[in-house]
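Quick illustration for those who missed Monday's session on complexes.
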Amino acid sequence: MNAEIVAVGSELLTPDHLDTNSLFLTGRLNEAGFEVHLKTIVGDSAHEITEVVQAALTRSDVVVITGGLGPTEDDVTRQAVAEALGRRLSLDAGLLENLRRRFAGRGIPMPAINDRQAFTIEGAEVLPNPNGSAPGMWIAEGTRHIALMPGPPNELKPMYDAQVAPRVAALGGGRRVVRRALRIIGMTESEVDSITAPIYSTCSSVQTTILASAGYIGLYMYQWVRSGERPEQVDSLSQAIQATLGDAVFTTSDESLEEVLGRMLRESGNTLAVAESCTSGLIGMRLTGVPGSSDYFLGGVLCYSNKVKEHLCGVPAALIQQHGAVSPEVAEALAQGVRQAIGSSIGLSVTGIAGPGGGSADKPVGLVYLGLADAKTTTHARRVIPGDRQTVRERTAAFALALLRRRLLATE
Ligand code: ATP
Ligand code: MG
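Prediction with magnesium ion bound:
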């Protein structure tokens, strides 16, 4: 069975707005056994929407349409879909009453233009919208089906799950896609590809994609299974790749690196403090984005200037003078110093040249040193990171988290 998504909204054709609804919908449709074979983005133009919907009905079992159900002149999806089906729109008195009550509940009279949200397409089942004023619709047209839903993601997602998912599942016949995802650090995309390609070429029933995103490589595997069938191929492929890549794989369950680190820190009973010079807070921000991070993350110092490196992180002025602020010696002293100042079991530090200025022949832009100290050992790592200022800062933060993971793995 195949499905098609139509995202309506002129804003989705500008450089400012991305159609993210279709990513959510594709995941859900796949789980229900539908392959999404086409997506269209169309502006708020009634005749274009009509054309797209008519074409969609000739080739797709399910057509999911989002957006343009609002109360304003430019929201024309309702009329355009009615036109595509050759059906009438009629006022649903119950819906109108609900709308009025909804506005009254907020203490405001309903604007007259909202009336149009109470119009439904002949023969449609109305899908209630607890999070907004525009109801959705489910429409059968011969063997094809249309789901019509509002554009705002906080309205669409709950409506899909509560109303559309059960209807779609009933059509799908139990066929579904099973997805396995590996997240990998410490390797480039081409390294991962050259190692894994020979493994997955032996497994033709599994689709694979590899994607480099911020800070990690994602390897995604999909297998379609019939009702009751076990996803054996995708599971054995995923296991074979994990065995080959070893601990470069940091998660198999879509977790972020900071979530994984949080678990490792908590389980090992460690606490962490950071001294961040060129990243000035990026590492702390990522780590504290995880709920419950106060269990293991104690705090940090944004030691941007040498004065702060000296006064708050205890780095001797002479050391900075002798080796420079961006040096292995200072990175190690920062890690030890912040660990002591804050009283954590581990100290992590970063010092580097984010650019675009400040580089020299022996210390180029992108040069970073990381320090890592615990009660027994202090180490450092060096890297030259290409890219602009923001890229250098973000990659440095990712590199620091990767280094911390290495240490925690080694002491497990
Ligand atoms: P409303 O009653 O809010 O007008 P609507 O169904 O008319 O609902 P739109 O006007 O099309 O929805 O979109 C409202 C907002 O929802 C958009 O500004 C945008 O932020 C978001 N939105 C719409 N479509 C999408 C999409 N495909 N992906 C992500 N966000 C979307
Ligand atoms: Mg709108």
